[in-house]
Amino acid sequence: DTGVSQDPRHKITKRGQNVTFRCDPISEHNRLYWYRQTLGQGPEFLTYFQNEAQLEKSRLLSDRFSAERPKGSFSTLEIQRTEQGDSAMYLCASSPWGSGRTNTEAFFGQGTRLTVV
Amino acid sequence: KQEVTQIPAALSVPEGENLVLNCSFTDSAIYNLQWFRQDPGKGLTSLLLIQSSQREQTSGRLNASLDKSSGRSTLYIAASQPGDSATYLCAVETSGSRLTFGEGTQLTVNP
């Protein structure tokens, strides 16, 4: 396992279409995070999972966005009825977490660049 | 609400210079602080993580310090090289969950 993997790397879609991104975390990491980054800004938190449970969602995650992690391994992020404002880099990260852990270093994937035209 | 500020927004230095990047945060109740590097169009590469009980971490030419009570961290890069050119992001973890990022410092090291 060489790190967090995201697919696709780039996605161009027409406004109104649905898109789905996949993230494969580092295998022993039980936490998985989704962030969104627009040009010139730092990443903004969207949501995170501990195993298969989605524990927190940002207000940025409108009802057009849904994320799943069905078996506590890979995760998908779906955007329905895409808008031009959804154009951004979508980043996935994973980290170890659990009782007694002190090192919760987050590792990021290469991101999926979404362009809505 | 946690807010993270990075100064300067951009920095251009000649090769070989030592430099310091600054990060400040408003809520000192952090779990840890992490420095990342981001190359254009790429994801984030973790550089250093400092837990809230620590004051500094070192990796090669990089040294990061943390003063939790004053809400500040610095990233020191020794003997800078053109390959160090990238955007450097500081992020704090609050309550063991989400990371809150600054907007980054864009570093250019000129040969």
In short, what is this structure?
Chain A has strands at 5-7, 10-13, 19-24, 31-37, 44-50, 53-57, 65-68, 75-79, 88-95, 107-108, 112-116. Chain A is mainly β and 117 residues long. In chain A, a hairpin with a 6-residue loop joins strand 7 and strand 8.
Structure, described:
The complex is a heterodimer of chains A (117) and B (111). Chain A has strands at 5-7, 10-13, 19-24, 31-37, 44-50, 53-57, 65-68, 75-79, 88-95, 107-108, 112-116. In chain A, a hairpin with a 2-residue loop joins strand 5 (44-50) and strand 6 (53-57). Chain A is mostly beta strands and 117 residues long. Chain A is built from no helices and eleven strands. The model of chain A has no long low-confidence stretch (mean pLDDT 92). In chain B, the strands form two sheets. In chain B, strands 2, 4, 5, 9, 10 and 11 form a six-stranded mixed sheet that branches. Chain B has a five-stranded antiparallel sheet with strand order 1-3-8-7-6, with no helix packed on it. Chain B has strands at residues 4-7, 10-14, 19-25, 32-38, 44-51, 56-59, 62-67, 72-77, 86-93, 99-101, 105-110. Chain B is mainly beta. Chain B is globular and about 40 Å long. At the A-B interface, strand 5 and strand 10 of A face strand 4, strand 5, strand 9 and strand 10 of B.
